[in-house]
């Protein structure tokens, strides 16, 4: 399949070669029962891509398992014109905007994607088998919430993972960071932007190097190395971290640094490389080294904002449309040098 103009596919160790069918110059004449694109994941990235592709008159299906990363959040922030909207309301509005373009929305999980002559065979948990010329994976990531009693009940209320998303709401409060090593130290230092009262709790894992300890001390950040027994809270608003021994650590908000994993392993199974940070390696348009396979949103980048995910979805949609145009002979050949 032809690559979009000015785009260079990312490398991978074991690329899966796929022959993408084309219409030999017949414009916009899809074969019966072959979708142009299946979007896996109905979050901001997937819905944004579907919107652009629908406006390109592409046959698109969005498959969504209904497990968004920010399901526990009360509001999302940093999205121009939608700052403070609930995540579910944003998704409801996004789905509503797809209806005029004939995009099919399915509440299903994709269990497998297999390279095929016409692009990809896509298997659903309903037992159905679909064929699509391109696949866009926008399933995002899953955060590792520390296994501390009471923490889960506070997640999205007074416990958070991203200071850019929730730091403003917790400004000037007593903030505890649960983390260790460079990641924990870095998060604690960054939160001084929002509050002068920050404490780092390593939960019994005192892997904070001497250099970081000196830096934290210089900025008035105390380190507590004791293990956390539970979270003291009322209706999700945290009051203190209760330690297994010694006095509790009073706090009004918690941010944690505990890593994340991909929601879907489909890109890895198809031969895509995974970066050191746990995201799928792509070029700037979301194209992987597997022809016809694109990955966007939190699954592919380290700046994990809702507005950025939506923008990546739109960019990938343009790349997919250009690739489909090229496979149909609808792209001008390069001028001779």
User: Level of helix content?
Assistant: 10-25%
Q: What count of structural domains?
A: 2
- Judged by helices, strands and strand pairing, the structural class is alpha/beta
CATH architectural grouping of the largest domain: 3-Layer(bba) Sandwich
Shape: elongated
Sheet with most strands: 7 strands, mixed
Distance between the termini: 23 Å
Order of helices and strands: EHEHEEEEEHEHEHEHEEEEEEHEH
Radius of gyration: 23 Å
Which fold name fills CATH's third level, the topology of the largest domain? FAD/NAD(P)-binding domain
Q: Low-confidence spans: pLDDT under 50, at least 5 residues?
A: 1-32
Q: Please, could you describe this protein's structure?
A:
The chain is built from 8 helices and 17 strands. The two termini are 23 Å apart. Helix 2 links the parallel strand 2 (60-63) and strand 3. Strands 1, 2, 3, 4, 5, 6 and 17 form a 7-stranded mixed sheet that branches. Strands 8-15-9-10-11 form a 5-stranded parallel sheet. It has helices spanning 44-55, 87-98, 151-154, 163-166, 181-190, 210-218, 266-269, 306-327, and strands at residues 34-40, 60-63, 104-106, 110-116, 119-124, 129-137, 141-143, 159-160, 175-178, 198-201, 222-224, 228-234, 237-243, 249-250, 253-256, 260-262, 293-295. The radius of gyration is 23 Å and the shape is elongated. The chain is of the alpha/beta class. It has 2 domains: 34-142 and 260-327, 3-Layer(bba) Sandwich (FAD/NAD(P)-binding domain); 145-256, FAD/NAD(P)-binding domain (3-Layer(bba) Sandwich).
